[in-house]
Design a protein that fits this description.
By secondary structure, the chain is an alpha/beta fold. It has 29 helices and 19 strands. The longest helix is centred in the middle third of the chain and has 20 residues.
Length: 691
């Protein structure tokens, strides 16, 4: 339990909801002493919920006709998506000298300009916090528009959970024609929320609508390859939640499942290198594929017939594909080698769909019946760019090996980062270990600082006390390296006074095995990693017993094989709907428009030389405590009416706007009522915020 006296908070808005106190829990074992202690904690934070001086001044001002004309011009420009021209006019206005109605229009216009420019965080600055009071007197239609803009802003920042909450609480008041669009967006946004966060929601959330959406989203990602079983689970969920909006009309990607279930492949041909130079890699993928097949069979799920073909035995991959099809394969998994994938991608006709285990060079082109799934480090680099952008980084120092691999992956990061609007402060390409120090000094501008010192000494003719200074414009370091390299580079960054700069990396920085003595030098580094290498599971233990060599040396490829098996039944569904997500061993999987599987990995940290998966976020739970000496006019909890709820939320908003530490934390408000008979009533989730 977290109360307002013990937490930091977030710059975000908590939408006031007219929710009755319906969930009531009697606390038979909670004493008044404990309750009063909580009360002291909550009341120790003095928060002024009254009008701000600016608001009071604005209420006395008469609307300036010239400002009215300028705001009208801005609104017309916004309708035409001319954000730059609108911004110029807005920058010339004095917000403090406007009447309150004009301030409201100004704030909405600033948010709309930010949304046009794709800057969700800037939009939230205007739609949340200190400006929220300006919306209090607006009609419901306008409040709906503002709430939808806020949801859009959260989506632009990548905070899909906040957007989902906003849309779910807004949904009941939307016109019928907008509800379908809104519900489709709820489903899409939820697909981008991690399993961990959804599981926390299901466990802790008090809103039945949000809980239901989260349950259904988790259900849709189930690690079951038997679609008939998945359809049965979904129908059971509908029976358990008959009035839920999604039960009344399932998302399209779930409606199609029954049709797809009746046309599943019965014979799968697996094309892998089972001899030659890639034998061990091919065996690892095969072992993972077989392990997933056996697990499904042991769970009484319907399983396909498998036939393996050694791609090393033939140079003609087209002939091998045709042979597999002629022998009855109605689905092909593989091949692995990029050149062979490229050959199959060029075929004019593919009678049996292919899930290739690498990527062809035809970028952005969708090929009928041809899907691609691999473990490209470039994808991990792009995810790092997306996530650190959401966390507020803007200027990044890139450190990468000066090799074909290092250049390719670092360029993927840089290109994606710059497309988002980020800046590359500097780039250090390292080669041999004896050159690491020089590369880092140059990237941090320390070499320039040392040259200035040497120049001054020569000019003055005497020794000078000197402390080098690094550049101060770096928000974060993107470190692209393997374990042995990173163990040398990280201490050098610390030695060069850059130890306070956060470091993010991709999975190559982790060896896959805990080695606290060697990895102590990596403490503090954040990196993305597939769940398979971070978490234990029964399947992992089975593979360790059956195929120890594959798991110890080729763990990632074993996971690739497992997920190839999990993907094959859902490929048709994924190709038709972009909201389908499957939680796999390699990450949360989806399909892009080119038929390529994309993965969302977990985050982990090095702590005390050990790898720790990033924990679930905590919830913020402010508690309002009320006492009533008489029950004549109702219970103590019932005094927290709609008006009081608004004041509590406004107080929380004011407090939260002063802090940024808990920017992504979900929030709910509890109420503890103490009645005349000393009966204690704890209502968890009495009313909710919209983040």
């Amino acid at each position: 339990m977290i109360d307002l006296s013990k937490i930091g908070a977030t710059i975000c808005h908590y939408l006031i909801k007219d929710m009755s106190l319906t969930r009531r829990t009697n606390l038979l074992n909670v004493t008044v002493t404990v309750t009063l202690t909580i009360l002291a904690g909550c009341t120790s934070q003095g928060v002024n919920t009254g009008s701000t001086p600016t608001t009071q001044t604005s209420q006395r001002l008469v609307a300036d006709p010239l400002v009215q004309q300028q705001l009208a011009a801005v609104e017309a420009l916004i309708l035409q998506q001319q954000s730059e021209e609108a911004q110029i006019i807005l920058n010339g206005l004095d917000f403090k000298q406007m009447a309150i109605e004009q301030q409201t229009r100004y704030v909405i216009a600033k948010a709309e300009v930010a949304l046009i420019n794709g800057d969700g965080q800037a939009a939230l600055t205007w739609l949340n916090g200190q400006y929220v009071h300006l919306f209090d007197s607006l009609p419901q239609e306008k409040l709906i528009e503002i709430s939808l803009k806020r949801a859009q802003a959260y989506e632009l920042t990548g905070d899909m959970l906040a957007s989902t909450r906003e849309r779910i609480f807004l949904d009941p008041v939307l016109p019928e024609d907008q509800r379908k669009i809104n519900q489709d967006q709820i489903w899409y946004d939820l697909a981008l929320v991690s399993d961990q966060d959804l599981q926390v929601l299901v466990k802790r959330e008090s809103s039945p609508d949000l809980t239901g959406w989260a349950e259904l989203s988790l259900l849709s990602r189930s690690q079951t390859e038997d679609l008939h079983e998945l359809v049965d689970r979904i129908e059971q969920w509908q029976r358990d939640n008959p009035t839920h909006p999604a039960a009344i009309k399932l998302p399209g990607s779930l409606q199609i499942l029954r049709e797809i279930a009746t046309s599943q492949p019965r014979n799968i041909g697996v094309l892998l290198p089972l001899s030659g130079s890639l034998e061990k890699a091919g065996n690892a993928i095969r072992d993972g594929f077989l392990a997933a097949w056996h697990q499904a069979s042991n769970n009484q799920q319907t399983t396909p017939n498998l036939h393996f073909y050694d791609t090393s035995s033939s140079e003609d991959i087209q002939s091998l594909y045709n042979r597999a099809v002629q022998e009855g394969a109605d689905m092909i998994i593989g091949p692995l080698a990029k050149s062979r994938v490229q050959t199959l991608s060029s075929l004019p006709d593919l009678p049996a769909p292919i899930l290739a285990l690498n990527y062809a060079d035809r970028v952005g082109t969708s090929i009928p019946n041809f899907y691609q799934f691999g473990l490209a480090p470039e994808d991990e680099a792009k995810q790092v760019a997306d996530d650190i952008w959401q966390q507020g980084a803007r200027n990044v120092l890139v450190i990468a090996p000066n090799s074909n691999w290092g250049i390719r992956v670092s360029d993927a990061f840089i290109k994606h980062w710059q497309l988002k609007g980020g800046t590359i402060a500097s780039k250090a390409m390292f080669t041999q270990p004896d050159q690491y120090l020089g590369s880092i000094k140059k990237a941090l501008n320390i070499d320039a600082s040392e040259r200035r010192h040497q120049l001054l000494q020569r000019r003055l003719g005497k020794a000078l006390e000197f402390e080098s200074r690094r550049r101060q414009d770096v928000d974060l370091v993107f470190l692209l390296a393997f374990p042995a390299q990173a163990r040398q580079l990280k201490p050098l960054l610390t030695y060069q006074r850059a130890g306070d700069i956060p470091i993010a990396a991709i999975s190559t920085i982790y060896s896959g095995h805990n080695d606290p003595d060697k990895d102590a030098d990596l403490n503090g580094i954040h990196f993305v990693e597939m769940p398979w290498r971070l978490k234990s599971s029964d399947l992992k233990e089975d593979i360790q017993s059956a195929f120890p060599g594959s798991l110890n040396s080729y763990a990632s490829l074993v996971a690739l094989g497992i997920d190839a098996y999990r993907l094959y039944p859902r490929l048709q569904q994924m190709s038709l709907y972009n909201d389908v997500r499957i939680q796999g061993s390699t990450g949360l999987m989806s399909m892009n428009d080119a038929g390529q599987i994309e993965r969302l990995l977990d985050w982990a940290d090095f702590e005390n030389g050990l790898v720790k998966a990033k924990p679930n976020e905590q919830w913020i739970e402010p508690i309002e405590i009320r006492y009533r000496s008489s029950s004549k006019f109702g219970s103590a909890a019932e005094t927290v009416n709609i008006s009081k709820q608004k004041k509590i939320i406004r107080a929380a908003e004011y407090f939260l706007c002063c802090h940024t530490k808990y920017n992504k934390h979900p929030m709910r408000f509890d109420v503890i009522g103490i009645n005349a008979s000393d009966e204690i009533e704890w209502i968890k989730g009495a009313f909710l915020s919209a983040v």
